[in-house]
Write a sequence for this structure.
């Protein structure tokens, strides 16, 4: 009897063991066969502005370093450009010369020149009076028949020449009083304006040797080192606007059925201790052809394109920075 019971117990144990093995195999098969959950992984990005100058020069001094928070208008770096300093000296000298020419044209002749022209005019007037008296005497004597016509004509010619000389002297005096012609004054004024424009141009370039921040943000990169030469337009600093941040997902088009513009996503941020963040989709666009999944079947298959999906945080997320990953469980999307 005991032998039969032992045999039954052994069979029962073997049967239970078999059932356990079958259950374990079934569970393992179910785990293996069960499709893995679809997790959409995105990356945080933010607006970035590169600071660069218009003029070449040598980095003289940095006032901001990587990781430093700056405000719009803060001075970031000084660039040394001796060539511009020399051009400014040249432009100022040209302006001074043009201003002197303009003053000379506006003021007219010097006092000594005006006085000399006046004396020459008065001398010519004296000659006119003398020639007139001489001509009147000769005319009377000619009328009395004392002098021939030749003498009378000579006296008249001398009188007319004296009058012409007096008129010429008066014109020279008037010109000295009035100064240069209007055209000369306008030309001198144009030269002054041109010189001032050259000075303003050089000064505007000199302002570009002191670069300021165009936005509020954080300095993420500083490219050259102090003392290095930089060319025109070369990037010097990179500033990130942490107030303008978004998340980018690259999603296959066969997964877009649950995602539309305006859809809200619930994402976890591993870098923030799996903090949950609410996002709202605001941009969807097809990516380039290199992001296309090619079909592996000749019958019934099709090329699956990838779409760039952008989403912005519904509310501000403290600590969220560009480059951080965000995970979205696709199965939880409605």
């Amino acid at each position: 009897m005991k032998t039969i019971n032992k045999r039954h117990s052994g069979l029962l144990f073997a049967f239970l063991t078999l059932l356990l093995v079958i259950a374990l195999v079934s569970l393992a098969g179910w785990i293996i066969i069960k499709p893995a959950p679809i997790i959409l992984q995105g990356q945080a990005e933010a607006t970035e502005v590169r600071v660069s100058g218009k003029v070449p020069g040598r980095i003289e001094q940095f006032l901001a370093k990587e990781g430093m928070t700056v405000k719009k208008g803060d001075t970031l770096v000084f660039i040394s450009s001796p060539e511009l300093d020399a051009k400014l000296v040249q432009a100022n000298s040209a302006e001074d010369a043009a201003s002197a020419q303009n003053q000379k044209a506006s003021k007219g002749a010097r006092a000594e020149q005006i006085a000399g022209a006046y004396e020459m005019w008065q001398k010519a007037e004296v000659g006119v009076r003398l020639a007139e008296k001489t001509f009147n005497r000769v005319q009377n004597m000619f009328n009395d028949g004392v002098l021939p016509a030749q003498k009378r004509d000579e006296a008249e010619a001398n009188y007319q020449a004296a009058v012409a000389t007096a008129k010429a002297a008066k014109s020279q005096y008037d010109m000295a009083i009035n100064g240069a012609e209007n055209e000369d004054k306008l030309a001198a004024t144009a030269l002054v304006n041109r010189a001032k424009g050259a000075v303003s141009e050089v000064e505007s370039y000199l302002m570009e040797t002191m670069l300021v921040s165009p936005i509020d943000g954080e300095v993420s990169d500083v490219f050259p080192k102090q003392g290095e030469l930089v060319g025109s337009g070369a990037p010097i600093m990179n500033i990130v606007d942490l107030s303008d941040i978004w998340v980018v997902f690259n999603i296959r088009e066969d997964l877009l059925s649950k995602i539309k513009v305006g859809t809200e996503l619930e994402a976890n941020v591993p870098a923030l201790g799996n903090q949950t963040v609410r996002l709202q989709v605001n941009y969807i666009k097809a990516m380039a052809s290199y992001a296309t999944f090619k079909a592996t079947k000749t019958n019934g298959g099709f090329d699956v394109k990838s779409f760039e999906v952008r989403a912005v945080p519904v509310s501000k997320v403290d600590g969220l920075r560009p480059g951080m990953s965000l995970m979205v469980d696709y199965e939880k999307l409605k």
